[in-house]
Design a protein that fits this description.
Number of domains of chain D: 1
Order of helices and strands of chain D: HHHHHH
Shape of chain D: globular
Oligomer: heterohexamer
Number of domains of chain A: 1
Chains: A mainly alpha (about 210), B alpha/beta (about 210), C mainly alpha (about 50), D mainly alpha (about 240)
Bound molecules: protoporphyrin IX containing FE, adenosine-5'-triphosphate, magnesium ion
Shape of chain A: elongated
Number of strands of chain D: 0
Order of helices and strands of chain A: HHHHHHHHH
Number of strands of chain A: 0
Strand content of chain A: under 5%
Largest sheet of chain A: none
Helix content of chain A: over 70%
Number of helices of chain D: 6
Radius of gyration of chain A: 18 Å
Strand content of chain D: under 5%
Largest sheet of chain D: none
Largest interface: A-E, 46 and 45 residues
Mean pLDDT of chain D: 82
Structural class of chain A: mainly alpha
Distance between the termini of chain A: 27 Å
Structural class of chain D: mainly alpha
């Protein structure tokens, strides 16, 4: 859809989510200390928390800009169903933020001494999990769209909803690193993403309509 | 076809503003809403556009509406032409080139919208109406910041739209140069305070 | 001709290939962008002198 | 005596670089080729590091140039802020991508070298970390240039960022050394404690350092020329609109 | 000054920075796993990174709102020097974000099994360091004020500048926890804060004037 | 005392817009700037207010200016009275109560500014001028969204300010009902294109 192209073009911050992810991977060792064993132990968790935060920081762009300049009012009266608008915007967010994170994560794994066996699972986990992050985030962004600079409120609402994704995602990677079976977290992660993609666009569109009123 | 508003009452922030508003627009007709600041023109237009529920009464034909609000819905980072073609794509109709030409924006079409002056932005906002292909235009103070020449251009635009069988509902404080349009003074429809104890005390508790 | 890099053949050649490749990409980018801008500018100047 | 400020005149700069750039460019290619070919083909293996020592001819020049590029940007930014010479601001803009690539080369060659030497691609080493932070400063600088529409505003803002950023980059470097002692070589040309560096290594190293320096100069000149043209184009388009 | 009170009132997000900090402290054990030894080891670093991110998320409020609604233009023509405006805004940001973090950090230390000896130093370190975070952040916010929803760009610019504060702050806490001498990081942390407070208001005001032009 | 603009040239986004603008305001005088959309009124006012450097020429008396732009600088979360008293505190002058009274805002004083209608917001923006205590008012389309009664109120306000020895510089497209004000048509001051090759190619490269 054109909306996607325009979202990409207007969003601008293609590399920025990446850069943020990178910075986080640099900061954590600086805070925690340089010991490789400790870092390797916490690497999957840190990478997941980093992906989460990188998503989070770009969430407020999803609807707030459109709300402020009045586009959202106009989109709501346009022939496109608002559910489709939400889904497209979440997809655009994932493509600009989630996908680059997935691609660059192995490099950051290096910085955090992630064990070799875990790299494949890291990619799989992020690939499965980040769409859910974008979708949940779009819902949160729809909830807070009327709040000026609601960045912090948004994170407050969204982060708890990210918990299941985070837990299963990090678990998947660390099990993968230790060579344990990964079936359960894999299935759960996929389930969360599928569920989010199926239900949340409707919830988000509903909430948007209420916020516009 | 057409827009018909029956016995409409609207409220904003829980406060009833207007009531008993009745009007109908047939193709080729325009209606200008008048009333002092804060009387509820914007609220009424939002109800007609379907963005807000009415307190009571009905709006027929609200799905054929193209709405232009105080804010223009312009993306500052996109160029003028890109802004328009986005809306053109959303509505799946309309000729962007012709709209640019019509609103005297061709020279500006490659410029980022952020660099437009106030009046130029407004002209872009009005050009959007042309690419919607919708018959009913609902316009909230469309001539704000426009100079005299642009106001005349706008009047022309509306006249053309009416001639093509369109309709227009316009809230404004100034003279638009559209003598053929009907006028509706909203002062006559100011909502009365509900009588104490009117509706059995239940609704009253929340008003 | 090729020197014997011993155990570290992979590392050393990787370093050289990556570095030269990166410099090559950079040079290419600078050159292409320079060419594109120069052409666009020339076109503009031609238009201008045509009009004048 | 022709003052160097004359080259702040874009026209003069263009005229000079017209003939200067090809010379510098070809010189850069030649010197780098000599240095790297000598280093790659005609140096002996180190008795402890084996063939990996050959990486030094890439690693050290690129690392040095990465730092020098930032210093050059700092000076150019100061000149822009104080004397408002447009060419200077544009040169700073043109230097940033070159600096990033140099930093990236330093990081990659270091990592590739670290694998055999320290048994790890990456280590919590201060020099490595502070280098990575320098990389981030470059990214931020470039992103800020890209984010701002008006060229003079962008030049002003990035110049201030470069000044303030330099202070923090220096502080970060100090902080990184405080944070961990590290594995990396000290700032001398000794490859390992106790071994004197032989001219067999030093000569090609110095040559490639010169070569990398020339590459940097050539790319910055070329980039500045492009930026000047782009700037002029913007001005012409704007003028067209006026008419 | 009145500006401060109004900033507090308008900022709104008094508890939000706190809540974010709290959530992060909860998320990290979820991502990393529940082992107390590991958590205790990384607690100072995580708390510092958390403080940093909580600051970061609320930074864009410092000037962007004022820029968008035109207040900044009006403030620039007001009799108050812009340097004072910047300093007051940074102070207000610290009071709404940094100070609550300092106060609540011991509780979060508990969640992360921070060793007993470290609590005092944690408070001292945050108290000394967070003003620098707010001041540096104000500078970054001034730089990006013209960029719409520049949240990610802002973090890219600001986070690298946070590195020295983070390193010395985390080092101070972990040295304190191990009973080592803390003089050097303490002095350095204080020095950074003092330097930032002395110089950055001028840089930020300069940058703001450029952005308004 | 007074505002004196000498041979001013202004540019926006690197494009020269106006040149050779000369005027002087003595206490008690008002000047209305006229010109089509995009001719550079806003830019000129920003230069006079000191927000933007002039291309050439001088502005004397710019530090005594109270500026009111297209945007009103209203904090949506604060109440009307709080918004005003904030600016009163910043300027260390002015009587908030009187200003509210004057602009007919007393009934709204406790309302959050976000809930005001477009015209009410604009009235609040104008009330701000009263609490600045500055002698020179520089106003950019002050009557946008105002109804006829409020426009008259505004004219009264300006007249009172002039009578008290103040000055006003106003850009507008409509008739303000201030016949005593001088007018300056900016079309006469449109900047010429620089001749190609003018300044030895140097300045030309960057305009
Ligand atoms: C990712 C890994 C690495 C990075 C980012 C890195 C970075 C740097 C930097 C920035 C310099 C510039 C000199 C300075 O800062 O004073 C440098 C110099 C140097 N590096 Fe590395 N380095 C890395 C790995 C290595 C390894 C593995 C070795 C060899 C075992 C090595 C050997 C050297 C040598 C010999 C110098 C020259 C020192 C001098 O005399 O100034 N580096 N490196
Ligand atoms: N949340 C709210 N609570 C109470 N009153 C509100 C709220 N939001 C708006 N109002 C009031 O509702 C009234 C109607 O506002 P509306 O924007 O419809 O007016 P308008 O006729 O468009 O005025 P204008 O000509 O100034 O644009 C105004 O008096 C406004 O103050
Ligand atoms: N960054 C920019 N680059 C090029 N031109 C610009 C830029 N910003 C503004 N302009 C142009 O400068 C001109 C002057 O704008 P200004 O806002 O001063 O006009 P104005 O007289 O206030 O118009 P209006 O009556 O519509 O408010 C406009 O034509 C605008 O398109
Ligand atoms: Mg209205
Ligand atoms: Mg204007």
């Amino acid at each position: 859809m054109r909306d996607l192209r325009l979202a990409l073009r207007a969003g601008g911050g293609f590399g920025l989510g990446l850069a943020f992810f990178l910075i986080l991977a640099v900061l954590v060792p600086l805070g925690v200390g340089p010991e490789p064993e400790v870092l390797a132990r916490i690497a999957p968790g840190v990478l997941w928390v980093g992906a989460l935060l990188a998503c989070l920081l770009s969430l407020d762009r999803i609807f707030a800009l459109d709300y402020e300049d009045g586009s959202l009012d106009l989109l709501a009266t346009a022939p496109l169903p608002l559910e489709a608008v939400v889904a497209i915007k979440a997809l655009a967010h994932w493509i600009t933020t989630g996908l680059p994170l997935v691609l660059v994560s192995p490099v950051l794994g290096l910085l955090l001494f992630l064990p070799g066996a875990a790299y494949g699972w890291l990619i799989v986990a992020l690939l499965l999990g980040t769409p859910a992050l974008s979708m949940i985030g779009a819902f949160g962004a729809a909830l807070t769209v009327g709040v000026k600079r609601g960045g912090l409120l948004l994170s407050l609402l969204v982060l708890p909803m990210y918990v299941p994704t985070l837990v299963f995602g990090a678990e998947l990677v660390s099990r993968g690193a230790q060579g344990l079976s990964v079936g359960t977290p894999l299935a759960l992660l996929a389930g969360i993403t599928a569920g989010a993609a199926a239900i949340l666009p409707f919830a988000a569109a509903l909430v948007l309509r209420i916020n516009l009123r | 076809m057409g827009l018909r508003v029956c016995d409409l009452a609207v409220a904003r922030g829980g406060v009833p503003l207007l009531e008993g508003v009745n009007f109908a627009l047939a193709p080729g007709q325009a209606l200008v809403l008048r009333g002092p600041n804060g009387c509820g023109k914007t609220t009424l237009l939002r109800v007609v556009a379907g963005l807000q529920p009415a307190l009571s009464g009905t709006v027929e034909g609200g799905e054929a509406v193209a709405y232009a609000a105080h804010a223009d819905g312009i993306k500052a980072t996109l160029s003028v032409a890109e802004n328009l073609s986005f809306w053109g794509a959303v509505y799946g109709a309309g000729d962007v080139k012709a709209a640019l030409e019509r609103m005297n924006l061709r020279a500006l079409s490659g410029r980022a919208a952020a660099t437009l002056s106030a009046g130029q932005k407004r002209r872009l906002g009005l050009a959007r109406l042309l690419v919607t292909g919708r018959p009913v235009w609902v316009l909230d103070e469309p001539t704000v910041s426009l100079d005299a020449a642009s106001v005349a251009l706008f009047a022309d635009l509306v006249r053309g739209h009416l001639a093509a069988g369109g309709m227009a509902l316009i809230a404004t404080h100034i003279d638009l140069g559209l003598p053929e349009a009907q006028e509706l003074d909203l002062r006559a429809h100011k909502a009365r305070l509900p009588e104490p104890g009117d509706a059995g005390g239940f609704d009253e508790a929340f008003l | 001709m090729m020197p014997d890099l011993g155990r570290y053949a992979l590392e050393v050649s990787l370093a050289y290939i990556a570095s030269l490749g990166l410099i090559g990409l950079l040079v290419l980018w600078v050159w292409l962008r320079g060419r594109a801008v120069r052409r666009a500018l020339d076109e503009l100047e031609n238009d201008r002198s045509d009009n004048a | 005596m022709v003052s160097i400020w004359q080259y702040a005149n874009p026209l003069r700069f263009m005229r000079t670089t017209d003939w200067l750039l090809p010379i510098v460019a070809w010189l850069a290619v030649a010197v780098t080729a000599v240095g790297l070919i000598w280093g790659f083909f005609f140096t002996p293996d180190d008795f402890r590091q084996g063939a990996t020592v050959k990486i030094i001819f890439l690693h050290v020049p690129s690392a040095l140039m990465a730092i020098n590029a930032w210093i050059m940007m700092l000076v150019a930014s100061l000149i822009w802020l104080i004397r408002r010479h447009h060419v200077s601001a544009l040169a700073a803009k043109a230097a940033a991508p070159v600096g990033v690539v140099m930093t990236l080369i330093g990081l990659i060659t270091g990592a590739v070298w670290g694998q055999p030497m320290w048994g790890t691609w990456w280590a919590g080493d201060p020099r490595l970390t502070s280098f990575l932070i320098l990389f981030l400063f470059y990214l931020g600088y470039i992103a800020l240039w890209a984010a701002i529409e008006d060229p003079d505003t962008a030049a002003d803002l990035t110049a201030v960022l470069c000044l303030v950023g330099s202070v923090f980059a220096l502080l970060s470097r100090y902080a990184a050394f405080f944070w961990s002692q590290g594995l990396h070589q000290g700032a001398s040309l000794s490859l390992a404690p106790g071994t004197r560096v032989d001219w067999a290594y030093k000569a090609p190293l110095y040559i490639s350092m010169t070569g990398f320096g020339l590459i940097f100069v050539a790319l910055v000149l070329a980039g500045t020329r492009t930026e000047i043209r782009a700037r002029r184009m913007k001005a012409l388009v704007a003028r067209e609109r006026m008419a």
